[in-house]
Amino acid sequence: MSLSHASRPAAHFMIEAPTPGADYTAVIAGLEAEAVGRYSLRSPASGEVIASVADCGAAQARLAADNAQRGFESWRQTTPFARAALLKAWHSAMLEAKEVLALTMAREMGKPIGEARGEVDYAASFLEWYAEQAKRLDGDILPSQHPDKRLAVLRQPVGPVFAITPWNFPAAMITRKVAPGLAAGCSVIVKPAEQTPVTAILLARLWQQVGGPAEVFQVITAERPAEISDLLIADTRIRKVTFTGSTPVGKHLYAKSAATMKRMSLELGGHAPFLVFDDADIDAAVAEVMASKFRNGGQTCVCTNRVYVQRGIFDSFAKRLAQAVDALSVGQPEEETTQIGPLVSQAGRDKAQSHIDDALAQGARRLTAAREVDGFFVAPTVLADVTEEMRIMQEETFGPVAPLVAFDDEAQAVAAANATPFGLAAYLWTRNLGRAHRVSEALDYGIVGVNDGAPSVPQAPFGGVKDSGIGREGGRYGIDEYLDLKFVSTRLDG
Ligand code: NAD
């Protein structure tokens, strides 16, 4: 496989953000684009059609799997140094194309443009980090009790990978899977969420434009995902499935994958608690809750979903949080000043609004000012007098709503935080060092932010326990998900 284009300067990338009339085909080697149907992509902000996108089915999935198998056979033979060079070139290309990618995400899923630029940086950081990590795929030599034997452990790529990604981070959820996969020597087929296909398509085009082989990273788009997913999961050539999305779909895919014994990674839903202790610097705690709760309109798997505040500071914390939320600017995603855009869909809007309505009907108190919103927008809201029976305390809201509950002591706060089937991210604010250690150890979560509402970085393991999933993405841990261990025992005088 020739990788001679890896150093091509990132100067002339041909990608465009969606505009009415734009047409995007899937990025599958050898695809006859005109033979594939199309579906209409609508803006969640305006409801207008912003592009037409390939609606692939079983035939395209089969083609992608054929390619992925061929791509794997040659890609696995490349050196990690060559793979690293391509990942670095792709990283530079993403940063050079930042504005187009950010605009695409703003248009596809309503992410405020400033946050969308931040996502491009975050997404690209996985390419750079795994470009470096590709060179550290070392194995082991084990000591032997037999003088004539040599024992070695090799780390080899698992094979072609099928990745299914959600709409809430249209770029980062792709690179967090694809970068370690490619670095390890796997080929990857990505099926992006039906709401955000264009970001994925543009990433694949950039990959090809820096010289990435077309059979090694492919993007298959579809309005109804099950047909593609069923076929690829049943295909024995696909050796791994990695999924980020909701817990029910994750469980469904996990069960289906048993038949062909796939390696699985599942990054699923969360229901993050934020515990604010009474020794907190209240303004600093408010700032971290704002960052954790209202980023991406609350549509983040690690978003705070429940805020527990120690009784002594409850009123003053609640007042300052409500003031900060009232100051949030709600608007069109492409406007520079917008902090809260629309939710991604009617269903997303209805769920978040129903959590507010249910809480108010059961006696909760709204602390924030009423705002006129329409379409898929939900007014950012803070609720007090919330009880554990309310839906907002039981389910992931995925919207800009913060329910506040008072607690009395550390044990009560930890018990409430852990009383959920989910276990992705949890947060606490305290200046007491002993408490910081005790509580972070006691929380049944994969990620804990201590005085930190935004802990995600490419070098750290990201993932959950219980119903929040299996496996980790990111860091040196994340690449293990794409590697098999092979033990080689050699008798010298064989
Ligand atoms: P979703 O489960 O509806 O969709 C996620 C992906 O699965 C999409 O690509 C979708 O097309 C696909 N899908 C849906 N049904 C399918 C089926 N039957 N067969 C195959 N594929 C199918 O979730 P969503 O609403 O898009 O995403 C939000 C969810 O993702 C939230 O629960 C959030 O917490 C979770 N999430 C988790 C993480 C994490 O790292 N743990 C990160 C982001 C989002």
TrEMBL record:
Chain segments annotated as coiled-coil in the UniProt record: none
Q: What are the UniProt keywords, alphabetically?
A: Oxidoreductase
> What InterPro entries does the record point to?
Ald_DH/histidinol_DH, Ald_DH_C, Ald_DH_CS_CYS, Ald_DH_N, Aldehyde_DH_dom, Aldehyde_DH_Superfamily
Name the Pfam families for this protein.
Aldedh (PF00171)
UniProt KW Oxidoreductase keyword: yes
Alphabetized Gene3D superfamilies for the sequence: Aldehyde Dehydrogenase, Chain A, domain 1 (3.40.605.10), Aldehyde Dehydrogenase, Chain A, domain 2 (3.40.309.10)
SUPFAM superfamilies xrefs? ALDH-like
Identify the domain of life: Bacteria
Similarity comment text for this entry:
Belongs to the aldehyde dehydrogenase family.
Q: What is this protein called?
A: NAD-dependent succinate-semialdehyde dehydrogenase
Source organism phylogeny:
Bacteria, Pseudomonadati, Pseudomonadota, Gammaproteobacteria, Oceanospirillales
